[in-house]
Structure formats: C-alpha cells, structure tokens
Amino acid sequence: MTLADRAAAPDRLDLPAFDGLTWRPLERADTPGVHALVAAIEDADAQPFRTSLAEIGDEFDDPGRDPAADTVAAVDGEGRFVAYGGVATRPGDASMVRVFLHGGVLPERRGEGLGRAAVAWMTGRARQVLAASDRDLPGRILTYLEYGGPAAERRLYERAGFGTLRYYATLRRDLADPIPVVDLPDGLRLEPWAPALDEAVRLAHNDAFRDHWGSEPQSPEVWAHGRTLFAPQWSAVVVDPAPDPALVAGLDAATRAHVAAGGTLVAGYQLAIRAEQDWAVQGYTSGYTDALGVRRAYRGRHLAPALLAAAMRTFAADGMQYAALDVDTENPTGAYGLYSSLGYEKTVGSRMLAIEL
C-alpha cells in the first residue's frame, strides 16, 4: 500500500464553521494578532517559555509550509484571534515523510469545540500533504506538547488518533558551580562559529544525527530557517584541520565532496540561542544549547563535553546564571548520562504525539 493510500486524505477540507467566527488562512500581516493569542495561551498554561513576535513572523518563511494552504485561524467579530492551527513538512526528509502540527485556543474560549475543530482540520490537511508526496515512504503526523500543559489538549489529540511516541526533558546547569576543563585531542581545534563554516556544520549535523530516532537530514533551506534567536557569539565548532584521508574516505558523499573542494571538516558543534523573552518566566537567565552533535567517526574523544564546557564558560562570561538544553530521554548515544555527569538537572519536559502511517 502506498503512502497516498495509507494517508486516507479527505478529498475536500472545509474550514470549520462557528457562529460569530470567521475561519481563514493566516497571512504575514496577522503576526501581531497570532502573537497575542500565543502569549495568552502560554500565560494561562504557565509555560516556562515565551514565543517572541519575531518567531511567529519567522513561521511565514518556513520552507515546508504554504501559509495559504497549510494554516487556519478563527477571528471573532472584534478582529481578535481566538484559535489557530498549522502544518509544516521538512524538505529533505529521506526515510520518513513527516508533517508537524501546531495550534492552540484562547483560554477563555476553551470548551467550545474550537480545539477539536482545529485538530481535525490540521490532521486532515496533514493527510492531504502526505498523500501528495512523491516519496513512497513511511509517514508520520506529529505534534509536541509540554508536560505542564492542559490535560484536555492531550486528550484532544488522543481522540483524533494520536499516541505518545517519545519523551523529552529540558535540563539546566548552574553556572555558579565549577565548570570542568575538558581538553580536545591533539590535532583538533575549537573555533567560534562563523558563517563560512555553516555548511560544514550542517553536514556534520546530518552525520551526527543519522542514528538518532526520528531524525532526518536537514536540507540547506531547513537548516537556514528559524534563526531568529540564534546566538553566534555563544556557538562553537570543533574542526579537524588536517583530517586523515582514510577517515574522510569513510564519510558520507556530501562531506567527501565538501572536503575535496577545500571545505573545512567540522567534527563537532554546539549551536546556542539567546531566548531573553524566557528569562522572566523562568526566574533566571540562561544560555541554551539548541543543537549539539559529534560526527560518528569522532565519538569517544570527548568532543561533546569539551563543547559543552566551552559553552558554559561563554554563557557565564556573558552574565548568564544557567546553561540549558533539551534531550531525547532515549537518546542512543548516552547523551542523558553525559549531561548528568556535567551537572545538568531536569526541570521540565515535553512529549511527542503522533499518528504513524
């Protein structure tokens, strides 16, 4: 059976209908209104983070989303957004076609069926996207929910056929505690992230995450998207300036071509974000490691702890109180144990809910 058959997509996807509300696709000009809605949801649910206006605007540039076809929102008679939903794919997915769902309902309008309508629309649209894919691969429709979010939201997705597939934990590390010194092996060099290294970092990321559950290669377009909060001054890479030809020969074709053309070989990386809008609700300042990876050929040589220790020093030098990151609790590389050994402790977490096709 093909993915199109398994997707069982609706031939027609009508917009929800509720008295007093207009449902329509989102436009870039809606960014402030959607931001106000998202802020109200995060405040009501006491989430330990806040989404910035710039992050909302960034969604309209998502390479895996057509806002006119892949978003929907409900607007009341006063022009206020009371519910929204959207789906997005990830161009470059190689072994599974994924469609990500995200939406929400204004807290005072919960219980009216708006959430159920939004989830039904998003799921139907996701099935259409999968059915239209020219890649006959396994499919997954997924969303992420915070542990502390309303139980009713999780039940909405479960009633729509979603099940929990994975759990993730947010960890933090007090930077007032002594930061370890971790030396790199001879021949490897720690360098600040720079634009000229970004393609080499993308290639390293795709190699590092090949054996991670649920991970797919990132295309250049996906890799470059969503950098509103990126903190290059807090980010670093480990480069191998004179890689062994035998080692290079065992790497993926894209990396071999990159090195053959004179490109730098990045063995590991730590990319950070500066989420200042989170600090007030967290109750502390923090530097957040958004991505950490080590090429498989370089594992076991202490690159990850060296990168994290360097990040801690950079965060602390900039006045941050904590270092933070997220981790898949079943990460196959032993990342959870590594973070614990460096003093990271769990604060909150999230779960992935999905429909597998």
UniProtKB/TrEMBL annotation:
The lineage of its organism: Bacteria, Bacillati, Actinomycetota, Actinomycetes, Micrococcales. This is Acetyltransferase, GNAT. Keywords: Acyltransferase, Transferase. The keyword Acyltransferase applies. Residues 21-191, 188-357 form the N-acetyltransferase domain. InterPro entries: Acyl_CoA_acyltransferase, GNAT_dom, YpeA/RimI_acetyltransf. Pfam families: Acetyltransf_1. It comes from the Bacteria.
